[in-house]
Structures are given as C-alpha cells and as structure tokens.
Amino acid sequence: MLITQRLIEASASKLGGDESHITLTSSPIYFSAVFGWSMSAVSAVMCAVVRMPLGGPHWSVFVKAFLLAAAIISCATVLTIRCVEQRRSGYAPVLLSTLAVIFLPCLAWLIGAATDIVAYPLLLGLVAFGARQVIAARDMPGSRFMLALTCGCVAGVGYFFVVNSKGYATVLTPEQAVVGTQHLDTLFHAAIANMLLKYGALSFGLDGLTPIKYHVLSHIWLGCLGIWLRVPTLDVYYIGAQIVAIPMLLFSLALAVHLLRPRKTGSDDGALITLVPLLLLFAADLWGWTSYLVSESYFVSIILLLLALPLLAEIAADEFRLRPSLQISGLVITGILIQLSKVSVGVIFWGGTGFLLWRQQGLTLRALIKLALPILLLVAPLAAIFSPDAGSYSRGFSPIRFVVDYPRGAWPNIAAHLVLLCAAAKVWLSGSARDRKIAETFVIIMVGCLLPALLLDIYDTAYYFVNVGTWGCIVFVSAYGPVIFGERGLRLLTPGIVIPAIVLVALATGEKRSSLKKVALQFEDLRTRVRTLNGEGVGTDIKTWQGLLELLAPGHPARAALADDVKRTSGAQAKQTLLSVGLAQDRHAAVFVPPDNSAYWSTYEDCRGDPFFVSAIIGVPLLKGLTPSALKCGLYSPPVYAPDASSAPTTDIQLCLRAAKSKLTTVIVLGAPTVARKIDCPRE
C-alpha cells in the first residue's frame, strides 16, 4: 500500500506545474539505475541463451526475474528523489517500500499463482514510471545515459563469467546436480530452502525433518522466488543471484554512497558515484576472497545493510529525536531481516546502530541501559535460534588464528579497516557534527568486525565478520572522498580515468582474468562426466574459445546433445522416477534409498553430496539418508543426526515409524534408478 500511495502521489505531481519541473530534474542516482537495469537485463539474456537448448527454464522466467530487479531499482530510485532529495518525508519510506518490493515474491508462498494478479501491475508500473522519469530527466545528457547503459552491459557480461566460473550456483547447475559435479554448498542451501517452504521445517531433510540451526532469510527469499517463477529451487539459486541480487547489490552500494555524502559535497556526477565504489570493490577483490558473489545469505545481508546505511546517516542529523517513528520502524525491521539473513552482519549492524542512537541520546549510562536492553533482547535470541555457530563463539580466544590459517581472506580486509580508520579520523577532524557521528559509527562497525575475527576461535566464519568492514570502507571513502582528499585532489577524477582503472584492476585479478577459461572448462568437464557415466569415450580436448562458443552461441547443437546425454545418466533417471510418482507435489512423503542402490550412492564424485540429491533436487526429505556406513563417507552438514541415520536394510514398518516422527505418511523406496516402490503408512 505504501508503494502504491507513493506512485499515486508521483503521478499526481506531474499535473502540478512546478512540481513537474522538480520531478524531471536529473539526479546522480539515475546513472546507477540505468547501470543496474542494463546489468540485470544482460545477465538475463545470457542465462536464457545458455539454458534454452538445455531444456529450460522458459525464456519468460528470465524476463520475469529481470522485471523484479528492475522494479526494485525503480522503486528505490523514484522514492529517493521524491522523499530524500526533495526533502519530503526522509529515507524511511524509501527503505520500507524497497524492502516490500524485494520480498514481494514471498506472497507466492501464501497465495500461489494469484500473486501475479498483484505483482505484474505493480512491477510493470514501477519499471515504466522509473524508466520514464530517467528518460525525461532534463539535466542528464544523452552521453551519460549511454555511458551508464554501456557500463551496465559490460558489467553484466563480466559478472556472468566471474560468478559462473566460481562453480557454485551456475547456469549449468541443473545438469551438474544430477550427474554429481555440482558444488555441495549449493545443494546444502537448496535442501534447506525446500524443507522450509514445502514442509515448514528448518532442516536438511537427510533423515526426516531433523531440526537444525541456520539463518533462513536468503533461503526463504530464493525459495519464494522459485515458487513465483515456477522453477525448481536449484534453478532459482543461479537466476536469483545473477539476475536479481548482484545487480541489486551494486545499485545498493551506489545508493548508500550517494545518500551518505556530506550535504554540501562537490560533485554530483552519477557516473563517479557508481563507478568509484566499483573500482574500490575491484581493488579489494584483487587480493581477497569474493564470497559475496556466491554466498546467498551474505549477499542478501549486505544488500540489506547497504540499504539501511542512509537511514543511519539520517539519524545522525542534529534534529533527530528518539521516539516512535517510521525511522525507528525501518531500523527495527531491517535489523531483524539482516539478522535472519546473516547473524554476523546483523550483530555488527546492531552494534553500529546502538552506538549511534546512544550518541544521539548523550552518551549517558542511563541512555546506554535504555538502548542496550531492548537491542540485546532482540539480537541474542535471534542469534541463539538461527546461528549455526551458536555456542561456538564462547569456545575461547584464539588470537589471529584466522589471519594465520586464511591470510588471503584476512589481510585485504584488515588493510581496508586501516584505510577506513584513517578516513574516519580525517572526517572527524574536519567534518560537521553529522559527519563526525557517521565517522564514529563506522569506526564502531569496524571494531565490531575486527574483534570477533581476530580474537575468537571461529575459523573461516570470521570472514563474514571482517569483510563487512571492507564494505563499510568502500561506502565511507567513496562518500567522503572530497573531505578526505580535498576537492582539488579529486579534480582529475573523471569517468575517463576511473573506467580504465577498473579495467586494469580487473585484468590484474587472476579470478576475473581466468573466468572465461574456467566457464569453458566447466562445460567440458560436464560433458566428460556425462560420457563417463554413460560408458562412452571421453572425447577430445577443445580450446577455450571453442568451449565458449558451444556454451554461449544461441541454439548451438552441442548443448542440445548434452541435454539428451544427461537424460540417460542414472542420476537423471532417478530424478525422473521420483518425479513420476508425484513427489514434487506431495507434502507428506519421504524417500528411502537402500544401501544396495549403488548407482544412487555413487552419483557424486564427492560422496558427501549423495545424501542431498533428493532433498535438494526433488524437494523431499530422505529417511535414513546418510551414506551407508560401509562407504566411510563424511558429512557435509553439522553432526545433528542419530547414529542410525545412515542407509541400512530396513523393514516397511520401521520406515513408517521413522516417517511418523516427522508427520510423514508416505515412503517411496528407490531400489534402483528406474525402480520405485510406494509404502502407504497407517495414519495415527
């Protein structure tokens, strides 16, 4: 309703004389909007081109995903201009409305296909209004529009190769999953999403609905997106990330930089507001990890954090008063969502937010207690319930273990924190009261990132603390560049300088430079795996350019041939057998795979992936679904299962008793890839 109200007001303003002139004035954020739209569109086109000969999804699915991304960007753009730049109602309506559009697909979880009745008019209206406002902007030269369009298209192509080269959720995931080469992390998360949305249980589905602890928001969002798009969960993991989330991440980064800038800043060049943060991000990628591209929970939490930062800047104003308001509602809602997406990011966000509110209240003990108690009562239970590492943070101190064990993940982020500290000190010494408070808040965020990572015994989880500070550094340095370096020092900083710098840094980064070759190798490895499973010859090696041509050329017969070959593998046959008995729609069924079904238990090159085959691909829990003990295979999940959870010879009665513990009434016994037997268990 809030979004609809804003659009009605915007439409009315076009009839209002002077208001019309203001609405059509250009804004720096227009460049970011065009960049995000074009990046998402190119990603959608490339995914559709690759997938069509492989058997789907249908091209309309990719258009629908682009429509969501474009509508999110349009909503944030239009309302930023009306509510913030025109000083009408502040940033809180922008934040809450944007969140409403982001999570609009979750209606599909509640009302199914009827969601389209609400979604299509709203999304199309937002995109149409946003595009009209950008095109009609009087102060945006055509050259700037074309530059934004070109940069977005290039970013779409570049990120397509970088994301897919990492081998997590890729455009080849549907085939990789059934032949056993899919990265296990994607199976892990798809299984959680399936169990949440289909059974309402937080579980992996490896032995009934055994409960686990995990941050759930990204799984709910992607799972709901899959329901809305009408595609399997594994498909939506690459569609949601590449077409919706990554363009939205870069747009949110530019939006945060734009709205955090000092009120009397020098340049309003939208190109620099978009491209300078991208250059700094590429510089961080040069040596560090790029988990933000493949960790769904992390990139969702960072998007939410970036969207929330302008609200913190607004709260830092001298006129702010702590009272029930839309601002406080926005803080609480966003903070909870961040916490549900990634507990580490949520804890850091609440630390910075709590300090800023305390700073505004006067730094008294009474104010500290008044603020700390409700924040702790909110954060602590969420962390205890949803954090997979709950309880591990108190194991004890292990100073700099993360730095020693994972230097590549640690040092670039530590360097970014030092840069942030120096930049904040410069701003604090020369900035306004608002700027000082923002600088102090970012330092508190930095401390909240560094201390757990450097002191606690939390292994590689420390990255998801320390890297948050790198994002803070990028936003702060980009927003306060004129204050830090001086207007004169940045006079030569133009798009003509920044764009070549981005290209040079990208070419200097091994991960980006080799991404084309890695994508081509994935396609060839998939074909080799399929030939091996089908008992055929391995084939001859092909050159990188040839592999890319076969993967990307519209309608290339090599992909159609691969799709046919995949259907003959035992994994594809097992999938088809399970789907043929109606498991995809049955919410009270489970699957049991006997230990003598050797074809199933040898599907994955890494045997830890075999238990996830059913719960991740079919979306149905297993019973006694861990690998048979004779295979001596480890777990790719927390050790939450009973000793008898491994597959073993079991009677029908025993299976029904086990199914009853999870309130399941049907068991499908998959004896072979093409043989399934149904057990109807007696209802209690």
> How many angstroms does the end-to-end distance come to?
44 Å
Average residue-wise pLDDT: 90
Report the principal-axis shape: globular
Strand % is under 5%
Q: Would you report the number of β strands?
A: 3
User: What is the percent of helical residues?
Assistant: 55-70%
Q: What structural class do you assign from the helix and strand content?
A: mainly alpha
Rg over CA atoms, rounded to whole Å, is: 26 Å
Assembly state here?
single chain
Query: What's the arrangement of strands in the largest beta sheet?
Result: 1-2-3
Uncertain spans: 1-23
| Biggest β-sheet strands, sense, barrel | 3 strands, mixed
**Helical element count?**
30
Task: Report on the architecture of this protein.
The protein is an all-alpha fold. 65% of the residues lie in helices and 2% in strands. It is built from 30 helices and 3 strands. The protein has helices at residues 2-13, 18-23, 29-51, 59-85, 92-102, 107-111, 115-135, 142-165, 173-179, 184-199, 217-229, 233-260, 270-287, 296-315, 326-341, 343-361, 365-386, 401-405, 407-430, 433-455, 463-479, 481-485, 495-508, 510-513, 515-533, 544-552, 557-567, 570-580, 612-618, 652-660; strands spanning 589-592, 666-672, 675-680. It has a 3-stranded mixed β-sheet, with helices on both faces. β2 and β3 (675-680) form a beta hairpin. α8 packs across α25 (515-533), α10 packs across α29 and α15 runs antiparallel to α16. 53% of the residues are buried. The model is unreliable at 1-23 (pLDDT under 50).
